[in-house]
Fold each of these.
Amino acid sequence: MQDATSDGNARRLTRREAAFDVVAVIVLVPTAAIGSGVLLGFLFASPPRLADVVLVQALLVLVGVYALLERRGSRFAEIGLVSPRANDPGRALLVLLAAFGVNAALTVAIFAWSPATLEEHLQGLESVALGLTEGVPLAATIALLLLVGFYEEILARGLLLTRLRQILGGYWPPAIVSALLFALGHFYQGLYGMVQTALLGLVLAAFTLRWGTLWPAILAHSAVNILSVVQLREIGIPDL
């Protein structure tokens, strides 16, 4: 089993330093979300598109992660952003299949328990998908979703997971905590959406810790985003 931190020469942080970075990540996400809207509202008279807000938010988060790494004298490779490998696409497919399997099991359980909950969740996702793609060409939407998958993995399975492992040690405790924090960042999707996101985060964290690279998770996460948004944009909500 490999460590998500791939550079054996990296300085080992104290638990206090690692905890500071975890808190900084938790603060960074809403700050970037609010800051992107404020910045675009200041620069442009018309209300910004959701796609523009997400783009600026992604860039602000990446700048924030870079600043935190610079503060520690670290590099992106130390949180799992190592050089791409030839087997990354195959591994990403395995992660994607695992994520779909877990999501399918959850969907069946929720549908059996409360079909209305599932329908409400899908309607919320459709609203987000339509807002994200409104006035945006399909190619630009796909590029944006690739960026979202990239920055969220650097943040959640990169910096956050690495720091949690330095605090908690082991394999499953940091994977579970990082998945829960990842889910909290998607609170706008409601309780069902947060459970769904937590399970996806747990799958991504487990494979990232296993392989010591972020690329399979980045590719799989981006694929989930693209398939979900394009389906909701082009096809809509399936009949339940």
Amino acid sequence: MYDVVVIGGGVVGGTILRELTKYTLSVCMVEKESDVCMGQSKANSGIVHAGFDAEPNTLKAKFNLLGNTMMRDYAKELGVRYINNGALVVAYAEEERQALLDLKNRGEINGVKGLELLDKQKLIEKEPNISDSAVGALYAPTSGIVCPYELTIASIGNAMDNGAELFTEFNVCDIKKEQSLFCIKAQDGREIKCKMIVNCAGYFSGEIASLAGDDSIKIQGRKGEYILLDREGSDFVTNTIFACPSKKGKGVLVSPTTNGNIILGSTATETPDDRTFTTEMGLQEIQQKVGHMMKNPPMSLAITSFAGVRAYSHIHDFIIEESATVKGLINCAGIESPGLTSAPAIAKYVVEDIVSKTLSLEENNNFNGQREPYYFFERLTIEQKNELIKKEPSYGKIVCRCERVTEGEILYAMRVNPKAISIDAIKRRVRAGMGRCQGGFCQITVAEIIAKELNIPFDEVRKSGKGTQITVGKSK
């Protein structure tokens, strides 16, 4: 029996789980997939938004600003890459200048610092590859970038290091409340009892709330498609570049990532489900819009495309509150952009302002918020690397040539929380398979390492969850 169960292994659930372990509470997370960060948290642009876009006096505006100010230190504690690169919202026609002024005024109402309107010359000085049609921009120096799956995995891993438990492939099918306790049941028959539930199920948060007896939350999905460019084009842009936003979101952006790639996207298409396939039409839309925003975008450097589904609520704002009809059920729903930015602030609020009203919060004196990054090896000097290789020869064997990932790093990812047990889980942690060849050379070797470490037959190694084995047996 647990004090609190967090349902959903995305960035909001992960930051809340970690925040809970700062106190002497018994906590766990349940996730329907085979690994954490397999929903919308893994498939977004990774922008730490400054906070000028959100409507004033909304939860989006409140938590965006707070999360932005927390992100640098939060990422540093967890060993997660964070870069304060700044953002530009660009006007590509004279009639869009007013939109820039409106965004600046809105941002200042929200408390965003340092916003500045740039003329065309100053814009070109910042971004030489900006389109000739650009007439000016709004500059937001407090904007940054972070790796979304790195942040999520590190948050959950650190929570587990501090006593939280994780149950994957736990697809919730029923929630019953008997007196003061919830009983959460999975499709495979597993059951967990707890005093409180924090519902962070993303696209499925309305369904989870309904299972618990709260039918008030209506969630819809909006699919966004992206294109990722090879690191060879890393000098194409420095800031995150937006066009003026629309009612459906911030629109297509061009941005560096913390790993040196350039990300382009996303589209915004209403979707009736959470499927994340890309489309020819969507990818063409991105190329067309980026071609309008930038001069000679290096599309020949595209190495992959992907999509994510953003869950948004019927009120078009975050829902972060204890259910009015089910005491002990805390709903964190409709956490679309700027949800990634807001996550650390949301976590602090949920625990200190909502959970604390039901459960007594006593500080966990053994809490350790520091975490060793997965990419620690690349930070070592040559001498330190050689010394480690003497002790652990696996660090001397390159497996992924594109990203220079060693066997030692893959084994490390399989042995620390939350343990990676599939090819995609390895990819999200140490980037094996994320380079130019997209696993064309290293995937089989990664699979062999997984099979050996888990002591399973090679044809049982999965790409991701159940039914995703990469082989069915030997041909000869």
